[in-house]
Amino acid sequence: MLAGMKVGLIQTRTPATHAAALAHVLPLVREAAAGGARLIVTPEGTNILQKDREQLLPQLTRLEDDPVVNALRDAARELSVWIDIGSALVLREDGKAANRQVLVRPDGSIAATYDKLHMFDVDLPTGETARESATYEPGDRAVTADVDGLRLGLTICYDLRFPALYRALATAGAQVMTIPAAFTRPTGEAHWEVLMRARAIETGSYILAPAQGGRHEDQRGTWGHSLVVEPWGAVVAHLDHDEPGVLLADLDLAASAKARAAIPALANARSFTGP
Question: Given 98, 126, 258, 268, which is the most exposed site by the fewest CB atoms within 10 A?
Answer without folding.
Answer: 268
